[in-house]
Amino acid sequence: MSEVVTTAVADFRALVPDCVAAGLVDMSTGMMLAVDTLDNYPGELLDLLAAATFDLFQGRNVTMIEDLFKARRGVTTDRHYFQEIVVNSDNLVHLFLRSQQNQDFVAVIVCRRETKMGMVFAQARIVMKQLESGFAG
Length: 137
Hints:
With 137 residues, the chain is α+β, with helices and mostly antiparallel strands. It contains four helices and five strands; from the N terminus they run H-E-E-H-H-E-E-E-H. The protein is globular, with a radius of gyration of 15 Å.
């Protein structure tokens, strides 16, 4: 499993255009499982990124919103409602992408702001599918 995760994170970094950092967060523990960056970032920053990812997808208010949306639409599954989130900062684009097969895994992909977002989504989704294939096999 750890080899699959490490390879996937390296693939996110290598294949997603203008990617400067990629990681995979385990939502069941809130821990960053693997990370690949252009620069060396302190562990505290990576821990904060994992915690922020958890809050974005499964924080108390987000969970309440998901439950409301699911109730209004008559959805009765445990599947999370929010699957992808994009955050734009002054210099970077952050894509948070939840695994379709294992809802506990969220990829974090950080790219330069001038990147083509369509290509970021397309490439990130391809790598996520490869990661999910690795989980299955």
